[in-house]
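chain below, 342 aa
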Amino acid sequence: MRWSRTVTVVGVHAEGEAARVIIGGVLPPPGTTMFERMCNLRDHGDSLRRLLLFEPRGAVTLSLNLVTPPCSPEADVGLIIMESQYYVPMSGSNTIGTVTALLETGMLPMREPETVLTLDTPGGLVRVTAECRNGRCVRVRFRNVPSFVLHRQRPVEVAGLGSVAVDVAYGGMLYAIVDATRLGFSIEPSEARDLVDAGERIKAAAAEQLPAVHPENPEIHTVNQTLFAGPLLPGGSGKTARNAVVVSPGRLDRSPCGTGTSARLAVLHDRGQIGVGETLDHVSIIGTHFLGRVEEVVSVGGLSGVVNSVSGRGWVSSIGQYGLDPEDPLPEGYTLPDTWFA
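prediction:
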């Protein structure tokens, strides 16, 4: 065996959404902030993402997380998140999975009954509280970057669907949020392929027709996810709803989606449908749960927004190494439109 590159990863999933956490073999990219590091990796080191996410070593359903020393003195660890098609400022499922991996492998010290730490992400500082018991990270709650609404019930002309009412909101990524029932969806597993097909068309139309720019970081722009929102119902100590998020280039998030939950909470609060301190039990298409809560109202670049907390469970599923043979004819992998829908 001859490897010109060796990368050590921990495999995790957060409420069904699978990811890999890089814990060895990769140096931090240059940059004085995590956003600069993310952009540097995207622009000059994207072979890493392709190596580990593209076939034959990866799959369209995976995400990738690079753990680095933090840039901010307030943080314990830095995090860069890579998805199939995008480098994203923040991700809830990847936060939950990465924290679970770091604590359960001993890379960060676990304290029971709670471990408190801060992640330095490209989207900003994310405060985390992990519930820990008997050496196990049993639940992770994170206080997300501020969320806000940019467009409210704007009509978007979508190929094959006609005019669709869309909210555009930020929760760590920019989402086009649509009413699933109005589009004929119940958010059941049998609808997965149809949801993806409609969601990609909605995303493309919203990105073209509804300009969306983060008011404090203009480099965060353009809708890149579609969230199908199920009916809001009473449930437990707050409210509950199903949802499905389409992740480009053409698959569903298996979890309830943490940044999607935050974006939806921003819309619900903006409409007066959920208040500060109220909980949303957000349910995925496979029946897993994230608990989201509006913590406070804030201003983001002159826009009214909210800070939300989101919690869920993560599990370590594997620890292993990936290597690159110098004679491998596919050093950066490949994609095919039978599964990648590129």
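The mean pLDDT is 97. Residues 101 and 130 are 12 Å apart (CA to CA).
thats it, cya
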